[in-house]
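look at this stuff:

>
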Amino acid sequence: MKLSGFTFIRNGILMGYPFIESIRSALPICDEFIVVVCDSNDGTREKLIELQAEEPKIKLFDSDWKQTEKKGSIMSEKTNAAISHITGDYGLYIQGDEGIHEKDYSAIVKALDDNLNNREIKGFEFNYIHFFGGYFSYAKKSEKKFFYDKEVRIIRNDKTVVSWGDAMGFKDINGNKIHVENGNAILLDSATMYHYGRAKNPASMYKKEKAMEELYNGKILNFFKNWVSNFDPRVDKYIYSDFSWLERIDKRNLDFHPEPFRKLAAAQNWNIDDFKNFMPQKKGIRQFFKMFIYRIVKDSINESKNAANKIRKFFNFN
């Protein structure tokens, strides 16, 4: 069994992505690792070349970064560009802010070996831990309305699986989503993806959400984004005044994290409560946390082909 890792990255340093740690966390179980390096001007490519000198498994492919007419689809386009270069039986997709814990390696490899000849299985789902506000607080499993709890991160490399939308999931060439409920994927119960996209201090979080907003400004979704950002003041209270939705980790327990991320965790010099102080100083950050609500709406549109018809029927639109 051969496993190929793959990802894409653009301006990873500028955006504060732990992309080097991310790749390092996956390398031990990969036979090769494909990185599509999109137009960057912050030293991202140079950093990857340094890593490649240490890890010959890594293969770099340069690419441009041209926005398409369909906003957000550039993410899946670059993911598919990476898929086109993999040569393994399977492909392990890991985004630049995700990591795999070494304690899960054996379970992952065993599941892939066991299903190597089961061609009906196109993907493998990971459980997720979403860090929020730092390396020592993450969303409880009950917070599914704000954070996805499972995603496919390993695909069968038989040229029938593609990334779609904002590159969070995969479909087959007939348009069927790769998902456990569809019978074409398996949940890896003993495997977890650690998502560090919001393991940031308040100022860095705000900067990232500002940049990501540019990728999701389609007309319909933009309407919903603006609607939710002004609709319910309880969102502010939920995010900033009640952190009971977060699990806390003892800061001495660095082993909780994948090995490559422990140095980053040890260097954290802020607390989750700093977000409460940052809010009145940077009022605009409220809009981007409310994007969690917007994400729910966006996913509903992406997942349901008849969402528009349901809305029309509800409001008696012709």
Notes: The chain has two domains: 3-198, 202-314.
